[in-house]
Write a structure and sequence with these properties.
about 130 residues, alpha+beta, Aminopeptidase, seven-stranded mixed beta sheet, about 25% helix, binds coenzyme A
């Protein structure tokens, strides 16, 4: 397994296929994708999992975290998220946060993120803002 920085373009297909399979690829592009640091986890040279990190001052947000549907539950996501949390620390971020799909809140709790009171809905999906001090 290998984690490396990839281009924003390399994330789009996996993001779309895993997170919003009913939407067009345009839907998963973020306006400020060019400001993000994009990470890919490769197994045998195949892209299995992606996540994008956006650092603003001492706050780091991770977005568009997705593991190929056929490869979920094998620990790829855990490995990648721990790596990215560590990257955020090394960039001197003091806080890491995300807009978590509510059905993933328990998953993120295992990484020390705690849910806030801020919730919202987008395209029928419920979200809660979660964060962790670094
Ligand atoms: C969230 C997501 C990226 C996690 O990626 P992943 O590669 O499946 O993550 P992991 O394999 O590390 O963990 C997934 C589950 O498998 C379990 N797991 C981890 N390693 C495991 C292993 N070796 N054997 C069995 N199970 C394992 C984890 O405990 C976790 O359990 P949970 O679903 O009950 O919380 C993935 O589920 C995904 O792409 N979901 C759809 C998109 C999405 O919701 N993105 C997040 C938006 S906030």
């Amino acid at each position: 397994m290998d984690i490396c920085r990839i281009s924003k373009e390399e994330t789009w297909e996996l993001r779309q296929r895993v997170m919003w399979p009913d939407k067009d690829i345009e839907y998963v592009k973020i306006d400020n994708d060019h400001e993000g640091i994009h990470y890919g986890l490769f197994d045998h040279n195949e892209l299995c999992s992606v996540v994008s990190l956006f650092v603003q001052g001492d706050r780091a947000q991770f977005r568009k975290f997705a593991t190929d549907t056929n490869r979920q539950g094998k620990g790829y996501g855990t490995y990648l998220l721990n790596y990215v949390i560590n990257e955020a620390k090394e960039m001197n971020a003091k806080l890491i946060w995300c807009n978590a799909r509510k059905n993933k809140a328990n998953y993120y709790k295992r990484f020390g993120l705690t849910p806030s009171n801020e919730t919202f809905q987008k395209c029928g999906v419920d979200y809660v803002i979660m964060s962790r001090h670094l």
